[in-house]
Amino acid sequence: MTDHSPYRRIVSKLSRTLDLFRGTIPVLRKEAIHIRRDPMALFVTVLIPIIQMFTIGFAIDTNVRDTRTVLYDGAHTQESRRLIDRFVNSDDFIIVADVESEQALNDEIVAGRASVGIHIPADYSRRLLSGQTASFLVLVDGSDSSVASQSLNVANAIALRESLEKSLPVTAVSRSLPVEARPKILFNPDSRSANFLIPGMLAVLIQIMTVMLTALAIVRERERGTLEQLYMTPVKPLGLMIGKIIPYAIVAYAELSIMLFFMRWVFKIPISGSLTLLLLLVVPFLITMLGLGLLISTRAQSQQEAMQAAFGTMLPSIFLSGYIFPIDTMPLFFRGVSAILPTTYLIEIFRGIILRGAGIDALWKQTLILSIMGLVLITLSALRFRKRTS
Amino acid sequence: MSAINTDQLTVKFGDFTAVDRVSLSVEPGEIYGFLGPNGSGKTTLIKALCGLIKPAAGSGEVLGFDCARDADQIRERVGYMSQNFSLYQDLTVSENIDFYAGIYGLRGEHLRKRKADAIAMTHLDPYLDRRAGRLSGGWKQRLALACAFIHQPGLLFLDEPTAGIDPVARRDLWDLLFQLSGEGVTFFVTTHYMDEAERCGRVGYIYLSRLIANGPPEELKRIPAVSPPGTRRLEIVTNSTSSALAAIKRQPYAISATIFGQSIHLLMDRSISTERVEADLRKEGFESLQTREINPSLEDVFVTLTDSLKEERLD
Ligand SMILES: Nc1ncnc2c1ncn2[C@@H]1O[C@H](COP(=O)(O)OP(=O)(O)O)[C@@H](O)[C@H]1O
Ligand SMILES: [Mg+2]
């Protein structure tokens, strides 16, 4: 006897849908036991990104302050001393050596003991007082571009200020200049590079951890032959995938929370926007990365191969996502690549919420793109899984 | 209805044919022994039967389900033990059983009962909390069997279940198979051991992807290709087996001769006496001869059949 009541139909449809996820719970439980059984592995997995966060985080403060400067004052006059004071007072320079020849000045820079050399020629004051253009020489070690450009900027500004003060009538000596640019940098008031880099770093670290964990979890089973055994059971690809993913998604989430904590309290980067929103918008990214890890696992035959593939996906995410190099200055091709990297969008979301206090109204586009990417990747890996199982 | 029935089943990996037109059937409650050298296609056939690999041609039915179409139904109803130990080494015996029980959807009272049965059957109770990786080979196989049997399948595929375990554990495992088979469970077992094959109800021998023998051991020993009319078999033990083999093969009455362990099996003209053979060998300088007439073993059967196939290929 068949019962065609709508209730029955719904139940049978539901059970058929549920059957697609067959095995989720046992796989999830088993995976949780694996994690519990190897607390050292878990500890290392969680610890490594945090160590990276600390090492990179403290190393990347690329702001130029106290640039080591060598001085050759050939004039030894009141004017030259005033000029030197301007440099010293700017905070950007610290005089580490006083030399008495051009050669010695050069040597200090070549030897790496200083990155900037200031040479005030003997005729500096004479030319200045006689109304001619007085010049002083600024030697910059160009091997560190950020030091070089900032030193030049400051040196030019100092020269300009000196010139203006000299060319204006001394009577107008309220010592204030007619025009002064006063840049105010929004959202990152100290222009700290750490504020800019750490949110991006979180995205990258979360990515490598998630991709690696999921890829390894499956490949390990393939290597040990347990996957072959599983394929012979009624476990469904989706059940296997989701059961595998959930524990690692939880680990990744916990990791992100720990890193956000350190970001706030150790690196002193406040979260201007909503923490809840941030944690919510990470979800599509995590799904994307879990899908990527699964995709790698369907290809890789050994854990070694899986690691290599995971690192392979990391490189573009580090260099082309805007984490280190601004996307705007990239050649068109690389801008195209960065547009298809999920990391690009998560970094935009992180920086948006953490630095600018952006809300969903400003970030919905990135969220939508990430959600689509996540859906595509998960579907793709599910399909590849299905092909392997049947 | 047969438990397994294949008709010209063929499996290919690219251009390579791993299983070539295999037709066999396995009856319910029987233990079918499947033999063949490494790489001859045993595992591949099992995978095809469970629907893991689609056949390139031919068809197969397992418990009445088509293995190309109804993989889901088949996997629900059969148990499979892969040729390498493939349970989770860091999970305990009990956790491994629970995992497989979970996958087959066992729950509540039913689960408890099935688990208790599986444990009682395999005598695993003292090791329930031990990590699977710390079990010895024989106990690992028992655990694997318990997991493969947890959902009470009517048919079990065991891929080289006794490879690499000690003789006592091997015997114990086979005793267990016989016990279950007595309860109506069907087994499809691959093995390299002739003594195991001799105990099977029926055996198949696959060689270079082709099934070249199929039937009860006693029947196979009687097939004409193995024991042609007018021939008999002698087992010869001598001091120098390999050089004696060459000497024996030179005799005009020798049809074929093969080394089996420490002895030589000689297939020869039945009209020649044993004394004549011994005398000929003494003449060639071989000592301490022991000869006796034997029935062909299964190994004789397989060796003869593969030899004739090799000759066929050369022609
Ligand atoms: N996935 C595969 N892709 C290509 N060749 C395979 C694959 N699996 C098995 N083979 C080949 O098929 C042949 C039969 O393998 P297999 O069934 O494992 O042999 P057996 O179990 O009898 O030792 C071997 O030559 C093996 O290399
Ligand atoms: Mg095999």
Keywords, please?
heterodimer; A: 390 residues; mainly alpha; abc type-2 transporter like fold; 4-stranded mixed β-sheet; 15 helices; 4 strands; 6% strand; B: 315 residues; alpha/beta; 6-stranded mixed β-sheet; 11 helices; globular; binds adenosine-5'-diphosphate; binds magnesium ion
Multimeric status of the protein: heterodimer
Shape of chain A: elongated
CA-atom Rg of chain A in angstroms: 30 Å
Characterize the main sheet of chain A.
Answer: 4 strands, mixed
Largest interface: A-B, 24 and 28 residues
Coarse morphology of chain B:
globular
User: What is the radius of gyration of chain B?
Assistant: 23 Å
Mean pLDDT of chain A: 85
Strand order of the largest sheet of chain A: 2-1-3-4
The beta-strand count of chain A equals: 4
Query: Averaged pLDDT of chain B, please?
Result: 92
The fraction of residues assigned to DSSP E strands of chain A is 5-15%
Give the helix proportion of chain B (percent range).
25-40%
Query: Which secondary-structure class do the elements of chain B indicate?
Result: alpha/beta
Helix segment tally of chain A: 15
Folded structure, characterized:
The complex is a heterodimer of chains A (390) and B (315). Chain A is mainly α. Chain A folds into two domains: 67-186, abc type-2 transporter like fold (3-Layer(aba) Sandwich), CATH 3.40.1710; 193-389, no CATH class. Chain A has helices at residues 6-19, 24-37, 39-59, 78-89, 102-110, 124-129, 145-167, 193-224, 226-231, 237-265, 275-299, 303-319, 332-339, 342-356, 360-389, and strands at residues 67-73, 93-98, 116-120, 137-140. Chain A has a four-stranded mixed β-sheet with strand order 2-1-3-4, sandwiched between helices. In chain A, helix 4 links the parallel strand 1 (67-73) and strand 2 (93-98). The longest helix of chain A is centred in the middle third of the chain and has 32 residues, at 193-224. Chain A is elongated. The relative contact order of chain A is 0.11. Chain B has 315 residues and is an alpha/beta fold. In chain B, the strands form three sheets. Chain B has a six-stranded mixed β-sheet, with helices on both faces. In chain B, strands 2-1-4-5 form a four-stranded antiparallel β-sheet, with helices on one face. In chain B, strands 12-13-11-14 form a four-stranded antiparallel β-sheet, with helices on one face. In chain B, a hairpin with a 2-residue loop joins strand 4 and strand 5. Chain A binds chain B through residues 22-23, 25-27, 29-30, 33-34, 37-38, 224-226, 228-235, 389-390, and chain B through 47, 50-52, 71-72, 75-76, 78, 80, 82, 84-91, 95, 98-100, 102-105, 157. Residues 13, 16, 18, 36, 38-44 of chain B line the site of adenosine-5'-diphosphate.
